Amino acid sequence: MEHLDQIYRQSDISWFTPVELFKPWYAHGIAEAIMRTANLSVPLQIYEIGGGSGTCAKGIMDYMKLNAPERVYNSMTYISVEISPSLAKIQRETVGQVLSHSSKFRVECRDATDRSGWGDRQEQPCWVIMLEVVDNLPHDLIYAENQISPWMEVWVNKQNDRETLSELYKPLEDPLIKNCLEVVNSAKKPASPSGVRLMADTLWSKILPRPRRCWLPTGCLKLLEVVHDALPKMSLIASDFSYLPDVRIPGERAPLVSTKKDGRSSDYNSYLDAKGDADIFFPTDFWLLERIDHFCSGSLKLHEDASSSKRGKKRRTITLDTSSFMEEFGLPSRTRTKDGYNPLLDDFKNTKFYLSVPTHNVK
Prior knowledge:
Belongs to the NDUFAF7 family. Keywords: Methyltransferase, Mitochondrion, Transferase. The chain has helices at residues 2-10, 18-21, 25-37, 55-67, 70-75, 85-95, 175-187, 194-207, 218-230, 286-297, 322-329, 343-346, and strands at residues 45-49, 77-82, 105-109, 126-131, 140-144, 152-158, 165-171, 212-216, 234-241, 256-261, 264-267, 279-281, 315-321, 351-358. By secondary structure, the protein is of the alpha/beta class. A seven-stranded mixed sheet has the order 3-2-1-4-9-14-13, sandwiched between helices. The radius of gyration is 22 Å and the shape is globular. Residues 305-310 have low confidence and may be disordered.
């Protein structure tokens, strides 16, 4: 921990991803999960969204070169979809350290949520990797005055001095917000009978009125809609924060907003105060992520009758704690210390992996 603290103090980066801290073992675990699950009779194609400095890409390609059948490595392609030109350049340099990787790797510098960038639908199987992507995607905030008031969109308004920001509340109209709210509501457990529940909520709203705030993962919904449409047979591996400690900002799924100064991080009490170089992390509700994944793939219908509810699932999914994932697919013996402590398994307790693969179980 002292060594890690020193690294952070010496770096302008306010947070290192696990794939960077645990290289190459973290990426090797992901590569092993792909090898065990992929149909290796067809050329292996991997997309990574938001590839950072290329550490994951290099680690996976290194592992394939050393452990996969030669024909699998020789025929594989690894495509990084990266919105930042500066990171795209670093990725090419990182992967290019191994000469044989260069012909199999390319960076497409574009926004992954823009459907036009993906071109025609690709019907062959492929893999999509998203490491610490969902927590940085845009979220929309909705607000209600009390427990029974309707949800409203939250808009940010600039005052005349152009420095002070405030919130405006407007009726729900944005189709992406409406869609996401429907998926969120479908993910909630069935409530008590509507009449009894409504009476209870009405009573509480009069006795103890309490405003409600909810952050919706609209960016995740938009991204998965695009990716599922472009790559209908894709398999997905995503890892992210399942919860965040000491969040000061109110609301369900509220973000941690922090900034770094003189090697020390400090958190904001309001997202309205965060300007310039603030880092924003949202916790990922993995149960909701699964619902969004099923919705975007077409296997979850929000408005269906009893007969259509018997449709077979088109996705097979599992959520694992990072420690469980690495115990299964990684090489934890390589990161275990002499006293038995293993940072690969024992740290990042607030992160999970989500795996989703297509099936042929469609009626």
